[in-house]
């Protein structure tokens, strides 16, 4: 499964070349420009893509660059590593999810939604399996920790994986997993959930900006901005009409 996923990511990266457009436009104008000449504003599947994006921006530019993500009208559950919830496996505790809380922890193998700002132990994964990190962090800091030191927070596709994780958990603890409630949608409407937010982003309050820019000054992390601001941008896809 992990190997297949790897192949999918790398082949999608090859078929999605990025193009840096060094002209300042609003997000909707940039989207139209990309759709006319390429496929769409840049979509980002993985940390490899984040690094590719950072590398194609002109070295002298240190501001924001539009990518293909904006606030959507619906909230959906997604996984930190970018997978959508096609497998439809959830193992909620009874009565869960129960509120406006956007991040998910597991307690004795059943899942609870809770405030992302809570500090919890968490699980990371890499090829060799799952690792319990006994240091308390909020969900976003836990995600950064896993991405830097392992691969990501874990995706749980089925009861077998849920049981594997449950085996390494400590009793009496809520522990973060990779599931979160996402209210952002990609320009091309595909439903992959990879996100690379800067600390404190996105803000829970609306009105703080509905379009997403990548900051070249903050190693490619994402910030929300007003959609009418003018920034350079990145398109992806084959070149048409050129
Ligand atoms: C997580 O903690 C960091 C500081 O370590 C803070 O900047 C960030 O806003 C926090 N995120 C949430 C969702 O509370
Ligand atoms: C990666 O692990 C090291 C050692 O535990 C830690 O100091 C560092 O902060 C971790 N990275 C992140 C992004 O949390
Ligand atoms: C999930 O992603 C797959 C491709 O990776 C896509 O075919 C499917 O439609 C997506 N499912 C949802 C619910 O968006």
* H and E order: HEHEHEEEEEHHEEEE
Bound ligands: 2-acetamido-2-deoxy-beta-D-glucopyranose
Overall average residue pLDDT: 85
Low-pLDDT sequence parts: 1-13
Given the structure, what is the number of helices? Answer: 5
The general outline is elongated
The number of distinct β-strands equals 11
Beta-strand percentage range: 25-35%
Radius of gyration computed on alpha carbons:
18 Å
Largest sheet: 8 strands, mixed
InterPro entries: C-type_lectin-like (IPR001304), C-type_lectin-like/link_sf (IPR016186), CTDL_fold (IPR016187)
Keywords: Signal
Domain C-type lectin: 18-125, 125-236
Protein name: Si:dkeyp-94g1.1
Describe the model.
- Helices cover 23% and strands 33% of the residues.
- The chain is of the alpha+beta class and 242 residues long.
- The strands form two sheets. Strands 3, 4, 5, 6, 7, 8, 9 and 10 form an eight-stranded mixed sheet that branches.
- A hairpin with a 6-residue loop joins strand 9 (211-215) and strand 10.
- Residues 1-13 have low confidence and may be disordered.
- It binds 2-acetamido-2-deoxy-beta-D-glucopyranose (3 copies).
- One 2-acetamido-2-deoxy-beta-D-glucopyranose binds at residues 84, 86, 191.
- Residues 18-125, 125-236 form the C-type lectin domain.
- Residues 1-15 form the signal peptide.
- InterPro entries: C-type_lectin-like, C-type_lectin-like/link_sf, CTDL_fold.
What does this entry show, briefly?
This protein is α+β, with helices and mostly antiparallel strands and 242 residues long. It contains five helices and eleven strands, in the order αβαβαβββββααββββ.
């Amino acid at each position: 499964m992990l190997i297949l996923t790897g192949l999918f990511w790398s082949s999608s990266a090859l078929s999605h070349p990025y193009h840096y457009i060094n002209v300042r436009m609003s997000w909707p104008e940039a989207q139209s420009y990309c759709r006319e000449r390429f496929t769409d504003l840049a979509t980002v599947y993985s940390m490899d893509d984040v690094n590719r994006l950072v590398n194609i921006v002109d070295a002298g530019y240190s501001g924001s660059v539009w990518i293909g993500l904006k606030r959507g009208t619906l909230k959906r559950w997604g996984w930190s590593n970018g997978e959508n919830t096609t497998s439809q496996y959830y193992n909620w505790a009874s009565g869960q999810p129960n509120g406006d809380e956007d991040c998910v922890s597991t307690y004795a193998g059943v899942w609870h939604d809770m405030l992302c700002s809570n500090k919890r132990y968490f699980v990371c994964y890499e090829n060799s399996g799952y690792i319990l990190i006994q240091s308390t962090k909020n969900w976003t800091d836990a995600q950064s920790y896993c991405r830097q030191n392992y691969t990501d927070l874990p995706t749980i596709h089925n009861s077998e994986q849920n049981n594997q994780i449950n085996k390494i958990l400590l009793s009496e603890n809520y522990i973060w997993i990779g599931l979160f409630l996402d209210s952002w949608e990609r320009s091309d409407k595909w439903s992959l959930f990879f996100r690379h937010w800067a600390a404190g982003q996105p803000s829970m309050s609306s009105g703080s900006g509905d379009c997403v820019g990548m900051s070249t000054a903050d190693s490619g992390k994402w910030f929300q901005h007003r959609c009418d601001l003018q920034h350079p941008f990145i398109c992806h896809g084959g070149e048409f009409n050129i």
